[in-house]
Amino acid sequence: MSSIKDVAREAQVSIATVSRVFNNPAVVSNQTKTRVYSAAEKLGYTPNFSAKTMRKSIVGTIIVMIPDISNTFFIDIVRGAQDYAETRGYNILMGRFDIHHFDLQKYIKLVKSKAADGIVMAIGHNRHFAPVAEAKGIPIVTIEEEFMGNPYIYVDNFEAISEIVEYLISKKRSQIGFLGFKSERERLLAFKNAITKNNLKYDEELIKKGDEFGEAVYASAREYVEAILKIGKIPDAVVCASDVLAAGVIKWLIKNGLRVPQDVAVTGFDNIEVAELVQPGITTVEQPREIMGREAARLLINKIEGHEVAKKIAFQTRIVVRESA
Amino acid sequence: MSSIKDVAREAQVSIATVSRVFNNPAVVSNQTKTRVYSAAEKLGYTPNFSAKTMRKSIVGTIIVMIPDISNTFFIDIVRGAQDYAETRGYNILMGRFDIHHFDLQKYIKLVKSKAADGIVMAIGHNRHFAPVAEAKGIPIVTIEEEFMGNPYIYVDNFEAISEIVEYLISKKRSQIGFLGFKSERERLLAFKNAITKNNLKYDEELIKKGDEFGEAVYASAREYVEAILKIGKIPDAVVCASDVLAAGVIKWLIKNGLRVPQDVAVTGFDNIEVAELVQPGITTVEQPREIMGREAARLLINKIEGHEVAKKIAFQTRIVVRESA
DNA sequence: CCCTCCTTTGAAAGCGATTACATACATAAA
DNA sequence: TTTATGTATGTAATCGCTTTCAAAGGAGGG
To answer: Going edge to edge, which strands form the sheet with B312-315?
Structure first.
């Protein structure tokens, strides 16, 4: 590939002038500018990225880390972040973490070595991270959970779950079960709180906290339905901590001859595509995922560029009513 | 941040020695090595990425471009690519293209400017790309479709659709409809071919090629079901070009009082999570998505590193039978 | 004891750009 | 005409690292 030197020679100017043409065109005369442009064109010149960032302090790349679940929830966050990053001239490097890949250290290293400028960690609720000494001083923004005092974006789970429970109560449901993963503990706490606040019975037998990761969604829903069928205690509503769980529960209820929502109402969480695709459609809680991604990117980039940023930003959820409840 | 110079001073050696310790430790004595290591540790030294790649020809980053649909199909490809890339020490830069973001040029530029080494384009079937002059000479591997003579990974849609049609015939279905997007034209052609090959009637009224992008899945399925209901010609099976379409079709059939699969069998394509979550589960065609992603990354990285690579690699699909057919 | 060879290290060039500083020339002000 | 000011360009230092080449010192062979 041709370098700035080649262009300089071709255009018969110094390399400084060539550099100016691309970075500060205002200061160079029109005549030279055209000479340089056509030389660059002729040689197919593209400025070398590494050389540039070696002199500049900002690289123009941010890392977005998401858990390794094929969950549209996180994908939308990435999309939002990317949309925004683009407008500020930043690229997105995909990061990942799950039980198998706990690579925070690796990404921190990428930032330290100036391969990227900072990290958005889409943590997900109640996945906890021990502080990492090396992470100090590098720009980080998290989603859903605080991490080492860095800014974060979140939604109020307590309020959301509370709303959905109250919605069910308004529909005359009184025996309400809950299904979620352990990692969604906050949603369970919120559920417990909402139940007792409204003077309903918090029935441990109708509660299940799955232990698993990723693939286990389907099995977990099935086990839940089979368990309540076995003890013969059928709730008139089930609050699920995610839409996929809700879809699974609906599937197994119907398979066992129960009607949704007539016999059992089911609610989800997240409002991903699935919620609309299944029959009956799932009543769920919508979180502004893309916007959360955007905001995370915005905060991060502002931080990178040295501006003062908010400590935390909360977003409102919204109940989307479909047929399942 | 501290540089190689600082470490050199701290360890009382030359910068050349420090560099050797990190790149070619075999040639330096144990004594010096330990001195350098502890100096590096003490100063929190991380080699600067840009400086390094300015001297080396390989950056260690590949771009994976996917269409901007929240489709787990593409996400799995990215995951596969990332899994593999990691083992070779490469990172993934997220690229994107859709009607709104046709940014191939931008990514090509990233490669030309040595911010990345090459591109995996997860094109998707029958999305066509006009050749791009600038793309010449840069390492590219595509998925599902050939592009400018570059290597590509694909599955045989013809065979897959043919198999699914024959499976339906074996289940005594004879009036078979098709629903797909325009972009899935090859699957439609394959469908047509399979129908006529088996001496069934290819009935235009039972075929719908949606025009839309992204969000339109749900509406498209609904329109299809309403259309066949209106003309009163109910097929005994519907082949859908994707699982989300199939889920939508099932939903609307059930809503209109039809039974799946008793009245109408429905098949999908891709075997994404949804296929298992809905009731009835969707009989579909599985593509080895992650593996395709891996292979794409492998081909690309080999190409980047100057090895000879295959021209194209085909993968086998597999029918996953569930309840919907 | 001298010569050769090997191991270990340092000096310095160069990768491709940005940018502070200097210079040259033209123009406006005195 | 002389001086001050501004515009356009060039020179050279610098960013952090890799790598070639050379040199120093020790070990082994004759």
So the answer is: A312-315, A152-155, A140-143, A118-122, A61-67, A91-97, B91-97, B61-67, B118-122, B140-143, B152-155, B312-315
Average pLDDT of the segment spanning B56-64: 92
In this predicted model, what pLDDT tens digit does every residue of A127-152 receive, in sequence order? 667 888 889 989 999 998 889 999 99
Q: How does pLDDT run across B95-147, given as a tens digit for each residue?
A: 887 656 668 889 999 999 999 999 999 987 656 678 888 899 899 999 988 89
B46 SS3 class:
coil
Q: Is residue A56 in a domain? A: no
Residue A233 vs residues A209, A220, A223: alpha-carbon distances, Å? 18, 18, 14
Query: Residues B221-228: what's their mean pLDDT?
Result: 92
| Percent of chain A predicted with pLDDT > 90 | 69
Residue carrying structure tokens 């809503």 = B255
Does any domain span residue B322? no
Residues of B in contact with A101 (CB under 8 A): 86
Same domain for A187 and A280? Answer: yes
Is residue B323 domain-resident? no
**Cβ neighbours of A75 in B, within 8 Å:** 70, 75
Rounded average pLDDT over A283-289: 93
Residues B282, B167, single domain; the answer is: yes
- A83 and A149 in a single domain? The answer is yes
pLDDT score recorded for residue A267: 97
Q: According to the model, what pLDDT value does residue B206 have?
A: 87
Q: Do residues A177 and A270 share a domain?
A: yes
The per-residue pLDDT for A69 is 61
In terms of residue numbers, what domain contains B34?
4-47
By the 8 A CB rule, do B294 and B137 touch?
no
Q: Straight-line distance from CA B10 to C1' D22, in Å?
A: 25
Same domain as B32, residue B65: no
Indicate the residue type of B303. K
Q: A100 and A244: one domain?
A: no
Amino acid at the residue B19 = S
A113 contacts on B by Cβ (under 8 Å) = 46-49
Tokens 């997900």 sit on residue: A124
- Say if B116 falls within a structural domain: yes
Q: Which CATH number does the domain housing residue A199 bear?
A: 3.40.50.2300
- Are B108 and B11 found together in one domain? no
**pLDDT tens-digit profile of B164-191?**
999 999 999 999 999 987 667 778 889 9
Q: For strand C, is any atom closer than 7 Å to the CB of A121?
A: no
Domains identified in chain B, total number: 3
| Predicted pLDDT of residue B188 | 86
Question: Rounded to a whole number, what is the distance in Å from the CA of B19 to chain A's nearest CA?
Answer: 15
Q: How far is B285 from chain A (nearest CA, A)?
A: 19
With CB atoms and an 8 Å threshold, state whether B278 touches A276. no
Both tokens assigned to A176: 């309400």
Does residue B65 share a domain with residue B40? no
